[in-house]
Design brief:
Elements (H helix, E strand, L loop, with lengths): L16 H6 L3 H11 L11 H10 L7 E6 L8 H24 L3 E6 L4 H10 L7 E6 L9 H8 L23 E5 H4 L1 H8 L5 E8 L5 E6 L4 H7 L7 E6 L6 E3 L9 H6 L8 E6 L4 H15 L5 H21 L4 H15 L3 H5 L2 H9 L1 H9 L23
Parallel strand pairs: 1-2, 1-4, 2-3, 5-9
Antiparallel strand pairs: 5-6, 7-8, 7-9
Helix pairs in contact: 2-3, 4-5, 4-8, 11-12, 12-13, 13-15
Bound molecules: iron/sulfur cluster.
Length: 398
Amino acid sequence: MPASTAPRLLETEAGGAVAAARDLAVDALLELIEKSGLRGRGGAGYPLVDKIRAVRRNADGGPIYLVANAYDADPGSPLSRTLLTRNAGNVIAGIAIAAQAVGATEAYLYLHPDAVEARAAAEEALANELGVQIEIALGPGGFMGGEETALLAVLESRRAMARQRPPYPASQGLRMRPTLVASAETLAWLPLIVVEQARASTKLVSVTGAVVRPGVYEVTLGSQLGEILTEAGGASGKLKGLHVGGPTGGILASSRTDTRFDFDDLRVAGTHMGSAQVRAIAAGTCIVNEAATLFAYLAKESCAICVPCRVGTKRVQAILESTYSGLGRDTDLAWLDELGTHMERFSLCGFGITAPSILRTTMREFPDDYRIHIQEKRCPEGVCKPIRSRRYETMVQP
Ligand code: SF4
C-alpha cells in the first residue's frame, strides 16, 4: 500500500456540499457518514457517527452545540493549521454539515492563538452562507488547551483543565448542554462524504526530526511508518528510533518501519495516534535522556488537576534525570513501571493515561540505554551531561 494517495483533505474542495447535505434527511446523512468509516482524527479514533448519535439521543429541545477542534496542541504537529490554510472551505462546510447532523444552531471553530494564517483563511471561508452560526474562538496556548473537556472550560471562560468523564460532552458539554466535539480534520471529511460518498481513507501526519523534507503529509491510513518516512524524503541519516503520536506517544526502535500507521495497529505497538506526529530520532541520541526531556515537557504542560499525572510526571522526570546523571539504581525500572501503572489507571484524562507509553516502549525497545546508564554509570551514546547531584528520593520506594 503506497503511503500517499491523491491528497483529499488538503486539496479537494467539495463544492455544493452544504446544500447537498440539506437535501438529505438526517437518517440518510448519518448512514452516509457510517458507511464512510469515518473515525475521529483527534487521536482516539472513535467513530464520528456514534458521537453524533449520542448527542442526538440527549437532545431535549434545548440548545445543542458543536465545537470543531483545530487547536493543534502539539507544536510539532500543525495539522489543523495546514488544513485550514490549504482548504478552509472543507473544514467550514464540514462544521455546517455536522451541525445539521446533530441539530446544533451554534458552532465554534477553536484555534490556537498563534494560528494567524489559519484564522484568516477560516474567516474568509465563513463569508459563505452556511445556515449555522460559526464563531471563531481562541484557546489559551499550551498543550492542555486542546483537550476535549479543557477546551469546553476555556469556552466557558475558565482555566484549561480537564474534568471527570462521565458525563461525556455528548450529554453535558458546553454550558452543560449536549455538545459534539470533533477535530477539524474529522469534520473536513463530511463534504467529501456527502458529495462523493468518499471513504475516509487518508490521515494527515506531521513528519519531523531527522528526515529530508519535514512537513505535513496526507497518507493512506494503514501505511507503514517506513513508507511515511519515504514520503518525507527518507531519513537524513542513520536513525535510532521513531517517536509516534506526539509528546505522550511511545518511541519505537528504528527497525520497526513496518508498523502500520493506524489507530489500532499503533496501540498494539504500544503507542497511539495522538497528534499524528512521526518524529525520526537520529542515531547517537540517548533514549533515557529523550524520555526525561519528554517527561519534563509533560510535567510543565500537565493541567495538574489530578494527582497521578501532576505528581507522576514530575517523579518520572526526576527519576530519569537521576538515571542519566549517573545516580541510577537497579530498582529504578520497577519504580518507573509502578508509577506508569498508577498514571495509566488513575489519571483523569488521556494525557496522563497515555504518557506512560513513553516508559513502556523505551524500556522494551532500548533496554541497553537504561542498563548502561544504571549499571555502568555512563551514557551509551556519550552525550548525557549530569544535571542532578542527588537522587530523587521519597519515603517509600522499591
Ligand atoms: S491527566 Fe494530567 S492533564 Fe489530564 S486531568 Fe489529570 S493532571 Fe490534567
